[in-house]
Design brief:
Blueprint: H1 10-18, H2 20-29, H3 35-48, H4 55-60, H5 63-71, H6 80-97, H7 104-107, H8 112-120, H9 127-140, H10 148-152, H11 170-190
Helix pairs in contact: 1-2, 1-3, 2-3, 2-6, 5-6, 8-9
Length: about 200
């Protein structure tokens, strides 16, 4: 059984490792909130939906009802309404294109380029997030179709600590967080933000 350590919460991490839809939902939510919260939210969502994450059921929910589930305190995201819509769109795609099996997105991909294209087509996944997710699949879940390294570059490289693909312990989480802080500081300096020379 694969272990993940994205939240540092054993129950939430176990769900991410066992339920592929949960992992996708966490990835969608991983923006503008701490990553631990984003990846813990699928566990909370499952609890609020009666103990199961079913893409067909979520896809068929009344959008306002799902937004209320996301917005109930504590909210599952800083932007519960828009994220509820995005997760529902994701579930619709998984239900309609992959027969309700989120893992089919990667288990049936013949090569890395196809895998990247499929992930990029998911609601809430831009180019960088898609490459990070392909790197996570390769590095931590052993999903390595031909060309996955190129498809995930630069995040698939060993020992980079650039993204969640490299988080497998509290220590690596700290390294990834440090890298992201460095990137933010460099971006701020280059755009003439506070502290720029």
């Amino acid at each position: 059984m694969t272990e993940l350590h994205l939240t540092q919460d054993p129950d939430a991490d176990r769900l991410l490792a066992e339920d592929h839809l949960a992992l996708l939902i966490g990835m969608v939510l991983d923006q503008q909130i701490p990553l631990e919260r984003a990846f813990r939210s699928p566990l909370d969502l499952r609890g609020r939906l009666g103990g199961v994450l079913d893409p067909g059921a979520i896809a068929a929910m009344d959008p306002d009802a799902l937004a209320s589930v996301f917005g109930a305190k504590p909210a599952l995201h800083r932007f519960p309404g828009s994220m509820a819509r995005r997760v529902q769109d994701l579930c619709r795609l998984v239900a309609s294109e992959f027969g309700g099996d989120a893992a089919a997105i990667w288990t049936t991909a013949p090569d890395g380029a196809t895998l990247l294209a499929r992930v990029k087509a998911l609601p809430g996944f831009g180019e960088q997030k898609a490459r990070i997710f392909v790197a996570l699949l390769g590095k931590q879940l052993g999903i390595r179709p031909d060309g996955w390294e190129a498809a995930s570059a630069p995040f698939g490289e060993d020992g980079t600590y650039q993204s969640i693909a490299d988080i497998d312990s509290p220590e690596s989480l700290a390294k990834v967080r440090h890298y992201k802080q460095q990137m933010k500081a460099a971006a701020k300096a280059s755009t003439g933000g506070p502290g720029a020379r």
